[in-house]
Structure formats: C-alpha cells, structure tokens
Amino acid sequence: MSCESNRILAIRALALTLLAFVPAAATAQSGPPSSIAFHSNRDGNNDIYVMDPDGSLQTRVSTEGSNDQRGDISPDGRQIAFVSNRADSHLEIFVMNLDGSGARRLTMTPPTAANTWPRWSPSGDWIAFQSNVSGAFQIYAIRPDGSNLAQITSAGVNQFPAWSPDGTRLAVRRDADIYVIDVTGGSAPVRLTTTVVAGVVNQMASWSPDGTRIAFMSTREPGNYPSVFVMNADGSGQLNLTPKPAGEAGMWSSRAPAWSPDGTYIYFTGVRPNLTTEQIYVMGADGSNPALLTSAGVNAEATVRRVRAPAITQLTATPNTLWPANNQAVNVSVSVLVADDSDPAPTCRLTDITSNEPISAADWQMTGPLTLELRAQRFGQGIGRTYTLTVTCTNTSRLSSAATATVSVPHDQRE
User: Fold this and answer.
1) 15 in helix, strand or coil?
2) Sign (positive/negative) of CA torsion 278, 280, 282, 286?
3) Contact in structure between 4 and 18 (CB atoms under 8 Å)
4) What three-state secondary structure class fits 274?
5) Is the four-CA dihedral 378, 379, 380, 385 of positive or negative sign?
6) What is the pLDDT of residues 268-305, one digit of tens each?
7) End-to-end Cα, the chain, rounded Å
8) Helix (H, G, I), strand (E, B), or coil: what is residue 7?
9) What 3-state class would DSSP assign to 76?
10) Which of 130, 192, 310, 403 sits CB 3.0–4.6 Å from 178 for a disulfide?
C-alpha cells in the first residue's frame, strides 16, 4: 500500500476517533457574548442594545434619553461607535465603552450636518462614517480618539461604508450603486452593481469574513421592496436571499445585512406580515431558515463584532523523541499556548497525524483531545521516522487556527 493510501486511512480513522471528543453542538449562531449591537425604541427612545449571537441577553447600554442608533462594536470588544443627537440636537459620531460608560464625542460639525453609519476598521485603528458636512454625503474616517479626520471620497454621493476584511477597501453606495474604493489609493473605484431603473438603489454593503462575497440591500425587484442580496466580491453572481413570496400582500422588507464571524449566517433588519415593525432576524448565508431574534418595540440595524481566529503561540509534544525504537506504544501529550481576543478558552484538539514513513492506524491511538499513543518504530534502512501532529484551536465563533509539532523516532542515537 502506498504512503498516501496509508495516510488517507489514518486520517479517516482519526476522524472517527475524534467524534468521541466533540462536544454537543453549539447554538446555531455562535460567538462571544454581547457581540451583536443594534438600536431599539422599546424603552421610549432609540437606544443602543447588545445581545448574544443567538438573540439572548438583550441589554440596553445607552441611557441618555437621546436618539442613539447605529452602534458598531470594536474588534477588541471593548467599545461601541454609535450615532447620537445628544450634542447640539443633531447627529454626531460618539464612542463609548461596551457597558455604556465613558461616552465621548468624535465629530464636531455644524447643526445642519448629519454624521452617521460608523464602522470600525478590522484593525480597530479607524472608524469610517458618512457625513454631509460639505453638502452631499461623503465618506470620512477618524481615529477612535477623534484625531486624524480624513475625507475618503469626493465624487458623487457616497454613503454606507463597509470595510473589507483586510482593511484596504471600502464598499460604499455611490449614487445608486455599490462601488469598492481602494483607501490606499492604489486603484480606481470599481462599480459592482448597475442600476438602470430610476428609483432603484443598492446600498448597505457588508463583506463576508473571508472577503469573497458581499451582502447588500437592493430595491430592484418588482414592487421595489428592500431585499437582502449577495454577490461575489467582483460583482458577479448577484442573488436575492429574501424574496417576497408570490402572492404575499402584507408588508415585506429586508435590509442592513451583517455577516456572522464564520460567514455561516447573515443578520438583517426585516419587516414581515405577522410582525409589521422592523425587527432583527438571522438566516443562513444562503437565505435559509430565517429566525426572529427580537420582538419588543422597533429593532434595527444589527452589526456584528469582527472576531479573529485564535493565535497559537506555542505547541510542544512531550516526549518529542521516542527511543529506543522497540515497537512499543508510548504516551505522548501536546501542550498548547493560544491567545484569543474574544474567547478566553478556545477548544484545542489533535486533528491530523502524518509521517514521513508509511503508517497505519496501528501506529497510533488517540487517548484524549491532546493525548495519544505513538509507536516507537522506524524503518531500519531509513533516516528515522518523524510524526507530524496537527492541532486545531477553535473559538466560540467557530474560527480556527492550526499548528504542528513533531515527534521523532531516530534511526539511531549517534550524534
């Protein structure tokens, strides 16, 4: 049997063995606590709320009695950028701590201006927003401490900025269509949608976490109802995810999409005939299985905190050398150091075992998520056997990173 065939058999056996160590399925919408922000008028005014990804623990965090809306949680989960009229009775950009404390104003514009739709960059170094301070709406960026205000766009009317996952581009509504703008200035804007009917708009773009797709709102369907679409990042493959059912005479609207951290789900603001005020829904990224998450008052424009995969900083197998090569099974354990800014305890487990020599399932045995038995064996005419152990760490948002450690069975003990 070939080395590759042995490896495939070993992987299949490993997959079956690991089933014994997989915990019960998590909730469909997983992620860190309080990682969804939205605004609601359930307590009288528009206020910023946060909730868990499954819709539980909905908590009000702004309590000023003003019009607070369009919140977005920073990538590190510590702050919320939001819009409020608490200063000078017009809309300005603010930042507060996740619990609502420490609010501070970032923009200072005349009472005739409106500043809104703040969005954190993936690094957390910038907040993009739209403002009509100069007349037509344009896109600006500002540091979280209020410094380095910069105007990003100037041509046409530009609204609803959305950062690409690498932080180099913004998807915006320019006039009636979605464009992608290179914030580094390295390339010209790229138009992704084409509006040919007066009154139709494409806006509120949201990049998938892997940067390959963009969800957005469009009113292109007959009747011009707002609906959530998805397309490839180059504008191809545009598809309506929330079509109005044939013959439905009631209210129907879907807008403001936002991806879950693992790209499996899309949150959106919807109106449905059985509940005619705007509410927060979540659905599969293919439009399947929409679920209502809110019901009290009017709830709108959920945003999802950007979450990174765990960072494995050290991986060590003990022992990392098996000797003598006496064909005996040896207990090996793997220790992992992992950092994660959203999950204090990512789940780490062995997910693959390979070797530079052909091996079979008899050469190893899983005994736990990070423990196994390896056979102290190597070919007599070879250079020695090296087992490569792959460990994968996964956080509560189902984002994973992998790293490898090696265990050797040397040919001999000579220097």
Assistant:
1) helix
2) positive
3) no
4) coil
5) negative
6) 999 999 888 999 999 999 999 999 999 999 999 999 99
7) 33
8) helix
9) coil
10) 192
Structure tokens that stand for 164 in this block: 């690409």
Question: Which two tokens mark 102?
Answer: 């420490």
Three-state secondary structure readout of 353-393: EEECCCCCHHHEEEEECCEEEEECCCCCCCCEEEEEEEEEE
Query: H-type helices in 113-209, by residue range?
Result: none
**Among candidates 342, 338, 346, 396, which has minimal Cα distance to 78?**
342
Tell me if domain 3-25+309-410 and domain 36-304 are identical in fold. no
What residues have CB less than 8 Å from 30, skipping those under 6 apart? 53, 54, 260, 262, 396, 397, 398
Q: 135-138: long-range contacts at Cβ-Cβ below 8 A with a sequence spacing of 24 or more?
A: none
Which tokens sit at 145? 């401490």
Could you tell me whether strands 92-97 and 79-84 are parallel, antiparallel, or unpaired per DSSP bridges?
Answer: antiparallel
396/30 Cα distance (integer angstroms): 6
Q: Which two tokens stand for residue 249?
A: 């005479």
For 83-106, how does the pLDDT look when each residue is reduced to its tens digit (9 = 90+)?
A: 999 977 899 999 999 999 999 999
Please answer whether residues 209 and 262 qualify as being in contact, where contact means their C-beta atoms are separated by less than 8 angstroms: yes
Burial 163-182 (b: 16+ CB within 10 A, else e): bbeeebbbbbbbebbbbbbe
Two tokens at 180?
């992608």
Taking CA atoms, 239 is separated from 196, 213, 251, 371, in Å, by 17, 11, 21, 46
Q: Which CATH number fits domain 36-304: 3.40.50.620, 3.40.50.720, 2.120.10.30, 3.40.50.1820?
A: 2.120.10.30
Amino acid identity for residue 3 in this structure: C
pLDDT in tens, 7-57: 433 433 443 333 333 333 234 567 899 999 999 999 999 999 999 999 999
Return the structure tokens found at 207. 């990049």
Q: Which amino acid is at 72?
A: D
Q: How far apart are alpha carbons 215 and 301 in whole angstroms? A: 14
Q: Which two structure tokens, joined as six digits, stand for 306?
A: 């950007």
**Fold annotation for 3-25+309-410:** Immunoglobulin-like (2.60.40)
How far is C-alpha 299 from the chain's CA centre? 21
